[in-house]
Amino acid sequence: MISDGAGYHSWHAASYFRHGALGHEAYDRLPVRTLMTTYPLSTATEPTGDLTPQVSYDPAQAWSTAPVEGSFEGSVTGLTYSKLFAGYDYVRQNYVDSAAAGTALSAGIKTYNNAINWTADDKPARMLGEVAKSAGKAVGVVTSVQISHATPASFLAHNRSRNDYAGIGQEIVEAGIGDIVLGAGHPMFDRDGAYRTPTEENFRYVGGPDVWMKLISGQTDYHLLDDRADFEALAAGRLELTKDRVLGLARVDSTLQFQRSGEGMGGLIASVPNLEMMTKGALAYLATKPEGFFLMVEGGAVDWAAHANNTARLIEEQIDFNRAVEAVMAWIEANGGFEQTLLIVTTDHGNGLAYGPQSDEFAFQPVVNRGQGALPDLRWHYDTHTNELVPVWSGGPGSALIAEAATGRDDGTALVGWGDVARYHDNTDLARVMAVAMGVSI
């Protein structure tokens, strides 16, 4: 389960708003807690042929409080950010994108930014969707953004460029690695869930107009659903399927909720299922598969909210993800428990570099809790990805291997409230552990 772009602040801010305190989310009950690096092989955006690592993570530099002069303009918000401290500046550089980060989690390799299961020497990489298939398991992917976006694509496809949405969408449908794929990217509806007359570009997330026509005319291996009532029926286990596989597109263009008009919470699109409902639907379907399954669930729009420095919708999206975690844990506990199922809850990278309201004066000041139902106080220092460590919670078969892989140590995390978790491992370790849990190797 991947809350895309969720830095330290995302987890804390959502918990403060929802519960008024930390320690009350479902993932807090998981027994193994570690931290994880996220950096790519290089910040190149195409294959270079060079497999030598160009990027790393240094805790001493990441938490340096040495003052730094100057400012810069954000690439997404257009806001001006002060440089302030050397640690802030360090983690704002050499960051991973969601494609290389997703590839690390799925294929277990470091690669260049932009790559979807593609190596720096220009070859496709074997990834967890294929590994699960080789182990006889079904594969599911659920996301709150377009199904061909970087993170879901990393578990379903291969491509030299994450921006080839049509090529990725076509592979998702035609290669059929995913037995069930649920998310956004519907060509016939806009960001507010209103019907529109689509342009050719609107079909790119589902593989182009020809692939869409095959989907709606029943010429693929997928049962296509898009009505909220059908998502509800799927979650309840009572949807009659016409095909062995399921592809569900919520009636919305880009994200389930984040991209709707307005900026704050409230006014949700009623015709769109939430991540919890889609996750329950995937579990109900996958539970019928006798050899077990691999499922990736992404809260993809947490990242979008961090890019926009939109605190209210960041919290909204993170809570949507946290409720999906609750659904998964309830399913595990009702179906053999953690003796039979490995669960990993994490993110692919940080985003936005948010700390407390006075973090322009006091380096790394934690987010300030204002109580349940109140937006916590924080200050944004960036509008894109970071090279920070990120948290990982896990439980079940293989989780002990994650703890064993955490051979690095970063005591600086105590500055932002993670003092009891200092050990870290690499993001590629998770792919290896998941493969081992399935009885195969990546």
From TrEMBL:
Keyword Phosphoprotein listed? The answer is yes
Q: Tell me the residue numbers annotated for binding Zn(2+) 2.
A: 303, 307, 348
List the InterPro entries: Alkaline_phosphatase, Alkaline_phosphatase_core_sf
How is the cofactor bound, in the record's words?
A: Binds 1 Mg(2+) ion.
- The residues that hold Zn(2+) 1 are 349
Q: Does the keyword RNA-binding apply?
A: no
Q: Which Pfam families has this protein been placed in?
A: Alk_phosphatase
Cofactor requirements of the protein: Mg(2+); Zn(2+)
Lineage, top-rank taxon, reads: Bacteria
The leader peptide range reads none
Q: Where does Mg(2+) bind?
A: 149, 151, 298
Gene Ontology MF annotations: alkaline phosphatase activity; metal ion binding
The enzyme's E.C. designation: 3.1.3.1
Tell me which CDD domains the record gives: ALP
Q: Which residues form the active site?
A: 98
Keyword terms: Hydrolase, Magnesium, Metal-binding, Phosphoprotein, Zinc
| SMART domains per the UniProt record, alphabetical | alkPPc
Per the record, the similarity remark reads: Belongs to the alkaline phosphatase family.
Matching entries from PANTHER family are given as: ALKALINE PHOSPHATASE
Protein name as annotated: Alkaline phosphatase
Source organism per entry reads Rubellimicrobium thermophilum DSM 16684
